[in-house]
DNA sequence: TCTAAAGCGAGAGCACTGTTCTCGCACAGA
DNA sequence: TCTGTGCGAGAACAGTGCTCTCGCTTTAGA
């Protein structure tokens, strides 16, 4: 039975996380101080250790929240587009991720910049981290099942990479419900690779913009990101791209 | 006149930077402590402030060193390839950057992960940061001047992005010596865009590998990066890709 | 060559950090 | 109603970046 104490506890965890999230948004991960968070909440610094074992655990909670925020922004934007307009859905995901990143730069940096706590991502973060790439995979899957994917002009995939992709896809699909698994196993590895590379191009481009690597090189940031979206959509073979 | 004092001073700066670089490589940017550095050098913590105004300035020196290390690794690998093998040179750059990143993960994270000091990159870092993209640009330029670039299957570049690219290229070329400027102004903006996107794909892919985003998704990392190199080389239009 | 100025290293000190420990208090469950 | 557990507060520790002052050394100029 979830007693009163558990309820209060969950509320406290949420409260601490929310204040920490705001501090992160304002000052960045390096400037996130558990003492400052507790100060704002009017509690002793040591009290937070009843809820989070250490600062890294607090950061991990923020990492999960950030992945969910980005994934949710992408999902929402994509779902607003006509489901038969596959290119439109693909571009919507790109736009939404960029918009989310610009609105939450520190949270973006936390999840797609240098991993700050340690090197091994905690287990809890792996599932929300895959949301966007799964969304892109679903779009490719829908296009393949519908009008079909257009032939693409890509270098042949070497055997080693091909075998690796097939093996990985099967292992991931094995842990999924059948409906989602079919989304993965149905497509040829070339398509999976194109989706992965499109996903990488999305975050690579947004990251380069956000971290200043395009300063003095590209000014039309939005137009550029959309061009990257169109180019990767064509590489995947989305019809009409 | 460069007095003895200036010489000693330069040596001290180099010594501090070197120890700091080693600490960075071992413990990462977050674990870089100026006190620890001075301790190892047997000097008082306050003494370092005679050479660097603050910790961020020390980090900036390390950022410059890291950019130079990555750029030098790329340049060296590229120069070892037959200059007429444009695809080979392109792939060599990709391989070299990845190898450097794997060998220097914390330094890679410092320059291509989240910007840790502030948001505006110090002036000194902008020049070394462009080395790799300039190298890729030169390869495309050499191919265009030699056998010519193959036609590529890309979505048309919208007018806004096109105009921005042309304007940016001219502004950058205006600050260069004529020989290097020709490398930029000669090519159509489509080629420049393909090079920029290839550069982005390179660091996006390497970053995703290094920061764990490919965990459980791609295992054949080297083969994948080379596939990305081939794909981007084809998008640029390098003959034979 | 002598002197004033500038550069320098050491040390103390400040305000801050994450984290641990101990102490009472309050409350949930038997 | 009693008791053990969970909890918050506060002190304490080791560490951080950084500033300031104090003498000493080296430099530059008259």
Structural class of chain A: mainly alpha
Q: Report on the biggest sheet of chain A.
A: none
Rg from alpha-carbon coordinates of chain A: 20 Å
Q: Which CATH-level-2 architecture of the domain at 76-236 in chain A?
A: Orthogonal Bundle
- Largest contact between chains: A-B, 60 and 60 residues
**Shape label of chain A:** globular
User: Could you say what the CATH topology of the domain at 76-236 in chain A is called?
Assistant: Tetracycline Repressor, domain 2
Query: Mean of residue pLDDT of chain A?
Result: 93
CATH superfamily of the domain at 76-236 in chain A: Tetracycline Repressor, domain 2
Task: Specify the helix fraction band of chain A.
Answer: 55-70%
Count of runs of 4 or more consecutive helical residues of chain A: 11
**Could you tell me the number of beta strands of chain A?**
0
Question: Which helices and strands appear, and what pairs or packs with what?
Answer:
Two copies of one chain form a homodimer.
Chain A: H1 4-27, H2 34-41, H3 55-79, H4 86-103, H5 105-112, H6 123-129, H7 131-145, H8 159-174, H9 178-185, H10 189-210, H11 221-236
Helix pairs in contact in A: 1-2, 3-4, 3-5, 3-6, 4-5, 4-7, 4-10, 4-11, 7-10, 8-9, 8-10, 10-11
The structure holds a DNA duplex (30 and 30 nucleotides).
